[in-house]
Predict the 3D structure of the following.
Amino acid sequence: MTSPPAKRCRRNRDNTFSRPPTIGDPDLFSKLPDDCLLEIFAYLEHPDLDAVSCVSQRLRPLSIRIRPKVRSGTVDKIRITRVGGNCSIKDNTSKIITRIQCRKHFQEHETKYSLSMFFSPQWITTKTFSHEEGLHADCEYCNGLQQQFDNDPSIAVLHPLFDSIPKAFNFETVEFDEVILGDLLIALCKKYFDVPCKRRVFSNPEIDPTMDRGGIRRYNYYSRIHEWMAVGCSEELEVLSDDLAPLEPTGIVRSVNGTLSSLRIISTQTPKQFDSYARSLPGSLSNCARIANLELDFLEISGAYSFSYILERYRLHLPGSWRFLADAAPVITGIFSPLGLIISKRNDCALELCLNGHKEITVKISPLDIDPSVFSVEATFH
Amino acid sequence: MVLITLVSSDEQNFPVERELLKQSGTIETLIVNMNLDDEDTDAAAMPIPLPNVKGDVLEKVIQWMEHHKGDPVKEGDNEDNNAEIVVPQWDDDFFKPAMYGSKHLELTVAASYLDIKNLLTLSCKAISNTFKGKTGPQIREEWGVPNEFTPEEEEAIRKENEWSE
C-alpha cells in the first residue's frame, strides 16, 4: 500500500526526537506549518500583520516575511507628488506622526507619496515628477529602495530612512509636475549627482525654495543629507536644511573638494560647525574650508540662529565675492557676488534674488559700524 | 462510477468518486503512480492511506469536494489578487461551526497536505478574516495561543508597530 510521505521526526539538541505537529494537538494554530500560516497571512493588510506579529514568537517572523516586498523591474512611469496634510508635524513626535500619516496614506491605496528632496525642475530634463501606484508596495516599511529613472541625466530616488540601497527600478519616463515636499524622506541618487551640474540639496521637506523662500517653516524634523549628494558637483551647490545641526557640512564640503565653484548652505538653525567654531573647537566651517582647500567664487552660510556667530566670529574672505551682514531686520545676511545678489532674511524666512532675474530690485548698501567689511542691506522689490 | 478508497490515520475507509479526487494534487499524483486509472487495475482493492489526516477531518474534506465537484482546479501558484477573494456563503457556513477551533485548522492543514488549492485558499481566507481589526492579544485569546512575550518584548513590538496604529 503506497502512502504520501509522512513527516519525519526532528532530532533535538538533547538527542531526543520531537514528533512533527499532528492535526488535533492543542494550540494547533501555533503549530501550523509555515506554508499554511503564510497562506493565511497573505490575505492580511499591514495593520493586521502588525497585530499578528504580537501574537507569538513563532508568528512574528512569519508576519514580517509575508509582507509584500518591493520587486525590481521596469515601470513605465513614476509619479511622485505631494502627500496632503503632512505639514501638521508636532515637536517631539514629528517623526512618528509623519510615519503614521505616510502609512495611512499607503493603507488607503492612494497613488501618491512625497519626496523630501527637491530638485529644481529646470535641472531635470523631463517634465514632472510622477509616481505609479504599486511601485512602493511596502515603501511604508522602509526597507530601502532605490528607484532609478531612465532620464538624462539619469536620476534615481532612494528612501533615505535607510542607508541601504537594495533594489532598483528602471523607468522609461520621469515627470515632475509639482514641487516635491512631504514627509517621506527620499533623495535623488548618486547617479544623478554624478553629473557636474548646478545643484540644490534640501534636507527638510518643509523648506520650499519655490515659495521665494518666504515660507520656510521649522519643525523638529530631521532628514539626512548624504555626502554623496554633492559628489561630482563642479558648479554651484546649495544645501538647504531646516536644521543643519545633524548635518555634516564638513563631509559635504570634502565630497566636493577642489571641484566646486559655489557653495551655499542655508539653515534655520545653527550648524554645529558654528557651535564648534564658537567654542574654538576644530571642525568649524572656516577650518572645514581650509581643509578642503576650497576656491569658491562665492560662499553663503546663513541660519536664523547662527548670525551672531557669523558677525562675531566668521571671517572668511573669499576671492570673487563680497559678504555683507547686518543686524537689522529684516535682512540679516547676504552675498553679493559676480553671480548675483543673494540676501537672506531673519527668522525662518529667507529670500533669494538674482540681479539678472526678472524682478526689478533697488538695493541700498551701507557699512555697519561694528565692522566696515559688514554691510546692511535694504532692498525694494518691484 | 469509479470509487477510490481513502484511509484516514485512524483507519476509517472513505470510498470517494474518482472525479472528486482530481481536486487533490497529492491524491491525483498517487492515483497516477499507482496506476489506479488503468482499466486493468482494481482500484477498489488498492486503498490510499492518508496517515496525516484523521477520519473526521477527511470526512469534512470529502464533503467540501463533493460540493465543489466540477469547479475548475487551480494550477500552479496562486496569482489571484488576495484582496478580491471572497469566501462564498456556502463555504462560510461550512467553516463557521469550526471557526476558532482546531477543526478549522485541521481542515486547513489537510487541504495543504492534500494539495487542494481551492479549499486551502478559502479556508485561509476565512481564518484571516477573523484576524481583521483585532489586536495581538485578542487573536491570542480567540485562538488559544499562549503569550510567550515578556512585557519588555511586548513593549518593544508595540513601539515598533506604533507608527502604523
Observations:
- The radius of gyration of chain A is 26 Å.
